[in-house]
């Protein structure tokens, strides 16, 4: 089978791009031919058809000019993408297209081209963009569902994107444009959801249940060397920002009594300076900055437990699968897709999101365990990944969706 993968970025920018690349590698390992379509970027991996990629766009410095209006048009519905994609399709002749994050750069113009060529499309939902203009369901550092019922104008009222009315208006118009013209509903055969939570949320917002396929993320555990013996510190890995719940973690940890294990916070972000000031009175808390590669691996391996204290609708964090692969239990918030991954008391503990007292109890409960119990939880964590998040299982599920999508190749049903 020849599959064309589409994504806004063709380099390892974040968790969604990691899924994007690893899925392509998985398909290639089973003998399928895979090609990429994206926009140009100096960080892009080299690919066969990148000469047809349209140029990237500067979106960080909004101005009022003809160039700015052109950029807005390209962000919502791109003519450049249409031209480049048609050339790739003519040369590669794909049987199937798999879209990942395409809004805002590749745009739904690509979906129109694919539909016009009779190429079935599936799309992985990495976030909530199709029902929330700002994609996160957050406003003013709290969970927000104000746009429910297609009330996308609320994104402008709330200034959801970077606190800007103008930028938020662009995002709201993009949502109205794609919903009114049913760009996703008409052109995508099936949506893939990595969590039951995300699927249920889309159904709650009016999307057809039968068009959304649950398929968990996968991870190749053979690339992770597990260390089941408990380490001597508690670990947070990730971006230091409000929605990640690091402030709640710091407050909860500082309130613990008799907990000798230090807290290591690995990562960077807008909240770092503030968090360091708050934590300065507690010598048990260490900030080690952004880690990667072997340093990140060893830091995780030597931890006793990993904490995921998110306060937004996390979809299916790869950080949990990575911690499990290293044989580490996880303490996670009961929000989004997190509680689907953690079995309380088996491979970790759960606590109420944003509740420092609840997290404090979970930390103290974990610290009270003996080494044998912690090791057993780590083995259970690794075992779950091996059974339910293996590449082989993901491959078979993905091929099944492709085949089902191909059945309707001669006609796309419009869903209201």
What report would you give on this structure?
The protein is an alpha/beta fold. About 40% of the residues lie in helices and about 15% in strands. The protein contains 16 helices and 14 strands. It has a 6-stranded parallel β-sheet, with helices on both faces. A 6-stranded parallel β-sheet has the order 11-10-9-12-13-14, sandwiched between helices. The protein has a two-stranded antiparallel sheet with strand order 5-6. The chain is globular. The relative contact order is 0.11. The C terminus is likely disordered.
Provide the fold topology.
Elements: E1 2-6, H1 15-29, E2 33-37, H2 66-76, H3 79-92, E3 96-99, H4 109-116, E4 121-124, E5 138-139, E6 142-143, H5 153-157, H6 165-180, H7 183-187, E7 190-193, H8 196-204, E8 212-214, E9 234-237, H9 246-255, E10 263-266, H10 272-279, E11 285-289, H11 293-301, E12 305-308, H12 318-325, E13 330-333, H13 338-341, E14 348-351, H14 356-367, H15 371-388, H16 391-406
Parallel strand pairs: 1-2, 1-3, 3-4, 4-7, 7-8, 9-10, 9-12, 10-11, 12-13, 13-14
Antiparallel strand pairs: 5-6
Helix pairs in contact: 3-4, 9-14, 12-15
Distance between the termini: 31 Å
Tell me what portion of residues adopts beta-strand conformation: 5-15%
Binned, the helix content reads 40-55%
Shape: globular
Largest sheet properties: 6 strands, parallel
Annotation field: number of helices? 16
What do the pLDDT scores average to?
94
Note poorly predicted spans. Answer: 409-416
Please tally the β strands and state the result.
14
Radius of gyration: 22 Å
Main sheet strand line-up: 2-1-3-4-7-8
**What structural class should be given to the helix and strand makeup?**
alpha/beta
Q: Helices and strands, in N-to-C order?
A: EHEHHEHEEEHHHEHEEHEHEHEHEHEHHH
């Amino acid at each position: 089978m020849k599959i064309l993968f589409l994504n806004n970025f063709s380099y390892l920018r974040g968790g969604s791009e990691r899924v994007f690349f690893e899925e392509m590698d998985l398909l290639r390992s089973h003998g399928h031919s895979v090609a990429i379509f994206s926009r140009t970027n100096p960080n892009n991996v080299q690919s066969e058809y990148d000469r047809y990629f349209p140029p990237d766009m500067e979106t960080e410095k909004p101005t009022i000019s003809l160039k700015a209006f052109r950029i807005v048009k390209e962000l919502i519905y791109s003519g450049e993408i249409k031209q480049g994609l048609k050339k790739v399709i003519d040369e590669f002749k794909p049987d199937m297209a798999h879209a990942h994050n395409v809004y805002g750069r590749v745009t739904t113009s690509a979906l129109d081209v694919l539909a016009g060529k009779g190429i079935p499309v599936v799309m992985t939902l990495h976030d909530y963009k199709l029902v929330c203009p700002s994609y996160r369901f957050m406003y003013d550092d709290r969970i927000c569902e104000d746009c429910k019922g297609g009330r996308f104008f609320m994104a402008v009222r709330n200034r959801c994107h970077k606190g800007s009315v103008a930028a938020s208006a662009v995002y709201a118009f993009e949502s109205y444009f794609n919903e009114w013209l049913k760009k996703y509903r008409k052109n995508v055969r099936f949506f893939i959801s990595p969590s039951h939570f995300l699927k249920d949320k889309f159904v709650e917002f009016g999307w057809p249940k039968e068009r959304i396929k649950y398929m968990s993320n996968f991870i190749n555990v053979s690339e992770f060397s597990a260390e089941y013996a408990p380490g001597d510190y508690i670990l947070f890995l990730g971006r230091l920002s409000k929605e990640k719940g690091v402030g709640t973690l710091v407050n909860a940890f500082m309130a613990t009594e008799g907990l000798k294990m230090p807290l290591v916070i690995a990562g960077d972000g807008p909240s770092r300076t503030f968090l360091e000031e708050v934590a300065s009175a507690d010598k048990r808390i260490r900030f080690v900055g952004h880690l990667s590669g072997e340093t990140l691996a060893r830091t995780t391996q030597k931890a006793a437990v990993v904490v995921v204290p998110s306060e937004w609708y996390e979809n299916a964090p790869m950080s949990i699968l990575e911690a499990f692969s290293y044989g580490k239990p996880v303490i996670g918030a009961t929000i989004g897709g997190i509680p689907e991954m953690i079995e309380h008391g088996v491979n970790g503990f759960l606590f109420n999101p944003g509740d420092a007292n609840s997290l404090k109890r979970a930390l103290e409960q974990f610290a009270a365990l003996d080494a044998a119990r912690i090791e057993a939880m780590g083995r259970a964590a690794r075992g779950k990944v091996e059974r339910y998040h293996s590449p082989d299982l993901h491959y078979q599920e993905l091929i099944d969706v492709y085949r089902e999508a191909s059945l309707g190749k001669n006609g796309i049903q419009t869903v209201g």
